[in-house]
Design goal:
8 strands; elongated; 10 helices; 53% helix; Umud Fragment, subunit A; alpha+beta; 6-stranded antiparallel β-sheet
């Protein structure tokens, strides 16, 4: 019934050139594949988890009907709206229609409990901005090529989310980075290629921009952000107290190398997690209880050891380098952001 009703909507011709519609379909598929590939790569670093969706026969059929109906409805309506409204101000219309579909697809439960800065930041980073950029890209595809390229792009992403039995289990900084950067990069890339093929810009002008240059810059930018949020084997952390003086001072940045917590040795300076904070202290004693190692830690400048033993699961890594003074910028910014660290959590060093 939904498909029949949508089929009766007045036809609005896509604004793009007809000869390039198949080309856009391929670009939409490549963009979705690019997105899934990067999610899988991130999953290799951070791990995978079981999909929350049912994989019984009835569950698969039910989800298939739901996802298909939702996609068809969204993409028919998106194509109709953007091509009906985008007569003069195409860019503004594409963004507004993308925002509209973002708001329509938000679940009310996702918008609750946003009174804390960290929850507000996580919501916008992992839900709102990725959804907005995905919808803006889908709207651009619908504007240039009709509902089909938008359906291909979002359909492949939804198929991965709903029908893949294992999914990348990413921290929220990773979700923010990948969910925002990949659709934005794809939008930039597709629009440039499309304008070149439709001769809205000259091929020579695009070549002068040296695509390898901005692709390389983008990749380096991604790697730098991954490094800063802890996706690489070594990641930075800012020291907010003097408990490890004179070796590590307040305002320094330490480089932490990820490690198996059970491999920590006596005298190792480690970073471990205690509730929602990260602590950088030295191992001063190793105990064993029920065949499991437990670690006593202490700050070099502290008179007494930390009150609680540290389990291997709490250990994030070993401090391998100290960069003096470079963390003061983060400390100043912390005043305005409620203590959010480069890894996205409340960060204190005891």
């Amino acid at each position: 019934m939904l498909v029949s009703w949508l089929w009766r909507l007045p036809r609005v011709r896509p604004s793009g050139q007809q000869r390039l519609r198949n080309y856009l379909n391929w670009l939409a598929g490549i963009a979705a594949g690019f997105h899934v590939l990067f999610l899988l790569i991130a999953g290799i670093f951070e791990g995978f988890g079981k999909s929350p969706y049912s994989f019984s026969f009835f569950g698969i059929v039910t989800n298939l009907i739901y996802v298909s109906a939702s996609l068809l409805g969204n993409e028919f309506a998106r194509s109709f709206l953007v091509n009906h409204l985008a007569k003069k101000h195409a860019t503004i219309t594409i963004v507004c229609v993308g925002l509209l579909f973002t708001l329509l697809n938000l679940q009310l439960a996702q918008c609750t409990d946003l009174n804390k800065i960290i929850e507000f930041t996580r919501f916008f980073g992992t839900v709102f901005f990725p959804s907005l950029l995905e919808n803006v890209l889908a709207t651009y595809l619908a504007y240039a090529g009709g509902f089909l390229p938008a359906l291909i792009y979002r359909g492949l992403l939804q198929a991965f989310q709903w029908f893949c039995p294992i999914l990348p289990d990413l921290d929220w900084p990773s979700k923010t980075l990948l969910g925002s950067f990949i659709p934005l990069f794809s939008l930039f890339f597709i629009s440039k290629i499309y304008m070149m093929e439709s001769r809205q810009i000259r091929r020579s002008s695009l070549e002068k921009e040296n695509p390898l240059g901005w692709i390389g810059t983008s990749v380096v930018s991604v790697l730098m952000v991954w490094f800063s949020v802890g996706l690489m084997p070594i990641f930075p952390s800012v020291i907010l107290s003097g408990s490890m003086e004179p070796w590590i001072k307040k305002g320094d940045i330490v480089m932490v190398e990820k490690m198996n917590g059970a491999e920590a040795k006596l005298g190792d300076p480690i970073q471990y997690r205690y509730e929602n904070i990260f602590i950088n202290h030295r191992v001063i004693e190793i105990q064993e209880k029920d065949g499991k190692k437990l670690y006593r830690t202490k700050g070099d400048a502290n008179k007494s050891a930390d009150p609680d033993l540290v389990s291997p699961e709490q250990i994030k890594g070993k401090i391998v380098m100290v960069i003096p003074k470079l963390g003061w910028t983060t400390i100043v910014m912390k005043t305005f952001t409620g203590g959010i660290s480069p890894q996205g959590e409340k960060f204190f060093d005891n």
